[in-house]
Structure formats: C-alpha cells, structure tokens
Amino acid sequence: MTDAPPAAGHGLAIGVDVGGTKVAAGVVDRHGRILGSARRPTPGHEPALVADTIAEVVGELRAAHAVGLEAPIGIGAAGWLDRRGARVMFAPNLAGWRDEPLRDIISARLGRPVVVDNDANTMAWAEYRFGAGRGCAELVCVTVGTGIGSGLVLDGKVRHGAFGVGAEYGHMQVVPAGLPCGCGSQGCWEQYASGRALVRAAREAASGSPQAGRRLAGLAGGDLATLTGPDVTTAAREGDPAAVKCFEEVGYWLGQGLASLAAVLDPAKFVIGGGVSDAGELLLGPARAQFHAALPGRGHRPEAEIVLAELGPDAGFVGAADLARAGILGRA
Ligand SMILES: [Zn+2]
C-alpha cells in the first residue's frame, strides 16, 4: 500500500454538490481524497443557470486536473429525485426545480452520462465509504443544517424507497399540528432539531430576558434579527447559559427523532453532520440523553451509537463522485 497520488486520470471521478446557496465540486480519487475543488454561489433558482454553473465547475476541474473527459461524474442535488435519479420532482430550497429533468440536461451539456442522487444521500454514502460510518453497513446519516437532510445506508447500499424520496426524515412529524414546514406539512422534525430551530430558540431566549440574552444579543450586534447559528455556537462554547440551553432544546428534539428512527430502522450508527454539529457534544450530549430516554425497549436492546460526521461540508461531492465511479445508480 502506498499513499502516493494515483496516476493521472486513473480512478478519478468528479462530484458536484448543488445546494440552495452554493455549488461545490471536486476531483476525488478512489480513496475519497480530494485532489482539487471549485465553488460558485448558486446563481438564483433558474434551472438553466444552475445547469450552466454545474457545467462551468466541471469544465474548470477537467482543465485544472488530469481527469480526462471519460471521468465519471456524480451530482448530489438538494432536491427530491424520482426513482431513476433522472428528474428532480421538488426542491424546497431551489424553487425553480419542479419536475426538472436534471440528469439528462447535465448529461447533454457534459457529453457523458451522469449519476444524480439527493445531496443528503451522497453525504451518507461518503460517510459510509470514507468517514464516520466506515465498515458500518446499517447507518443513518443526519445533516443538521438550516433544515435536516438525511440518508439511509442498508446492507451497504443507499436506500431510496419505491418512488425515490425515502429517507426524508426531516419531514417525519414529531409534533402533531406543530410548526408549519416548507414541505407543506406541520410539526416536521426539521422545525425542531435544526439550525433554524436553534436560532429561533436563541432569539426567543434573548428577547424574553435581555439580561440572560446579553451575550447572544452582543454577538448579533444588538439586532437579534441578524443572529446566526454560528453565533449561538460561539456563545455556547463560551459557556453562555442561554446558548447552552438552546442546544439542550435542539439536542432533545434530535434525540427524540433518532429514537423514533431506531424503532423503525434499527441502524448500528447515527452519523450526525451539518453546521449545527460543529458544536459537538453541546448538541450530541443532550441528543444521546433523550435518545436513551425515548428509545422503545430501552435497557433490553443494543443501542445505536450517535457519532459526529468526519468529512465536513465536502462530503456531498465526495459521495457523489464515489457513487458515479462505482457506477452505482442505486435506483431501479
Ligand atoms: Zn416538512
């Protein structure tokens, strides 16, 4: 075994992660190592402009790295794909994508077949192959960002359900008639266990008690409307009690949802990523406690591990590249 870089073009693939705010892409080798990357802001929500941007970043990577025109190309897209991975049926954060034939449009632009999957699925795949889920054939990956992204690996395969839109756990209802959600439903998990929920809790805490919320208000420059998730993380890391309490609340809901998922799926591991997980144990501690408290049959069954993701924000394109390299469509 050697860690020397592979010969030019050998075993390399290009992955592209298309999110609501940015398009990130990279050249990835068969060990999941990133040899080069490129980024652009997502250019509005017009599908043709998004396609232009995808073609641009792939062109840039092809030119800068000896990947060759034959290198497989995988795309992780922030949308709900049909079972063949051909059409984006719906994308809560990319309003232009409604029944959009993304795969064939990009394939025609690049002159090669491309593999498309949901971005949370490509992240789950990356963590399974190269990250915190290595060697664990039954895992659930939960990305706690603004909302919740999630992916399921069972028997070493990404699972999509019958119609392609399975494993959207962020839209599992945890509070009947609860907060409205972008998916059209109410009380979804992502309304309670996400960055959005964290910031909402922090704003409520700070406006309810200016004394207790002094540090949070200070980080927001005195205007709570501009408070961000990373601000709350900063305050919590400093030990600010109001911010720590916000993480306890979001962690509680995270653990509550994971316990429900354990009842349905019985995975060996939950891998938790996304920006909110940068807070580490401030989030995972309360999540583990509530997971244990809410797990059906607790004390009489093995408990899944709840661990932090290892690959960071590049996991989306690393997994997309690897799925494409393996020629794994994963879809019927
Ligand atoms: Zn929802």
UniProtKB/TrEMBL annotation:
Keyword Transmembrane: no
Organism annotation: Frankia nepalensis
GO cellular component: cytoplasm
Enzyme Commission identifier(s): 2.7.1.2
Signal peptide: none
Top-level taxon of origin: Bacteria
Protein's UniProt name: Glucokinase
Family recorded in the similarity comment: Belongs to the ROK (NagC/XylR) family.
GO molecular function per UniProt: ATP binding; glucokinase activity
InterPro entries hit by this protein: ATPase_NBD, ROK, ROK_cs, ROK_glcA
Main enzyme class: transferase
Keywords: ATP-binding, Kinase, Nucleotide-binding, Transferase
CDD domains for this protein: ASKHA_NBD_ROK_SgGLK-like (cd24061)
